[in-house]
Amino acid sequence: MSVTFLTGASSGLGREIALRLAMRGEYIVAVARRRELLDALVQEIEARGGRAHAISCDVTDREQVSRAVTLVESRDGPIERLVSCAGGGKRTKIDDFRAAQFEQMLSLNVLGMANCLEAMLPRMLDRQRGHIVGISSLAAARGLPRAAEYSAAKAALSTFLEGLRIDLKRHGIDVTILSPGFIRRDESKKRRPMEIPVEIAAARMVRAIDRRYRSDAFPLRLVLLLAAHRLIPPAWSDAIVTALSGALGYPGRGVARRRPIPPTA
Fold first, then answer.
1. Domain ranges of the chain
2. Which end of the chain is less packed: N or C, by CB atoms within 10 Å?
3. DSSP letter for each residue of 149-180
């Protein structure tokens, strides 16, 4: 039985991925801070015939993560796979910039993964096998309006994992970087261009995880659009992104609102 340690499992994309991996026969250790939501997830997985266990843990707390990993390995066996879905952040507010907010965003999106790796990587290296999956974003491809901090955090995560992928390959440990665009979770909110329902996004990611892809970025049209922006002068690129910022789901001109950024866009 393969044990998967999945962070950010209480809602959204993490929850969908946990459900789908469980239905493929994996034992899911569902990790997040909100215990009541984790318990509901475990009940649903078990009702469908799968196996799961909930652990309330803040991935930004290194000691909590270390204790959780030690508990899992002693009780359930070796962790074969880490799926790091924990992430997200707030709009960058330029007229009230706070380094503390940026620090929190980096801690959640990057150091949360690093804390998990510190606890798991020595064990994976000893066994000479394992699989590390990080959920990045197409926002890592360039700085986006009102999302400078989030784009920077996801770019740091992607670059970090790219380097690890090369270093760990000879040790039998695979690294997969998943970079989705906008993911739709709430039908009541305004639609954004090329938005993908969370169920479809999760199904694609589970396929990539199962096949141990090195990376997967989607949807293709948005990937190509962002790639094209790197080939044109920065002044043109900035002007285009600014003009499209309203259609992309960002606030219009003026002060940006403090709203959570979805973990994958």
1. 3-261
2. N
3. HHHHHHHHHHHHHHHHHHHHHTTTEEEEEEEE
How far is Cα 89 from Cα 203, in angstroms, rounded to an integer?
24
Q: Tell me whether residue 141 is exposed, middle or buried, using C-beta atoms within 10 angstroms of its C-beta: 0 to 12, 13 to 18, 19 or more.
A: buried
For 133-158, write each residue's pLDDT tens digit.
Answer: 999 999 999 888 889 999 999 999 99
Strand pairing partners for 28?
Answer: 4, 52
- Tokens 């989607």 found at: 218
3-state secondary structure of 109: helix
Query: Which CATH number applies to 3-261?
Result: 3.40.50.720
At 218 the three-state DSSP class reads: strand
Q: Where are the alpha helices (DSSP H) in the chain?
A: 12-23, 35-47, 62-75, 99-106, 112-127, 148-169, 198-210, 220-229, 234-244
Measured CA to CA, the distance from residue 17 to residue 23 in angstroms comes to 10
DSSP state, residue 107: I
Q: What's the Rg (C-alpha) of the chain? A: 18
* Amino acid letter for position 62: R
Distinct helix (H) and strand (E) counts, the chain: 9, 11
pLDDT tens, residue by residue, 225-264? 888 878 888 888 888 777 766 554 444 333 333 445 454 4
- As a whole number of angstroms, the distance between CA 199 and CA 216 comes to 16
> Would you state the structure tokens that stand for residue 233, as one six-digit string?
């002068």
Q: How far is CA 4 from CA 48, 209, 211, 250, in A?
A: 17, 11, 15, 35
Q: Which two tokens stand for residue 23?
A: 């239905």
Kindly state the tokens that stand for 105: 């965003």
Pair of tokens at residue 31: 């990790």
Threshold 0.85, pTM exceeds = yes
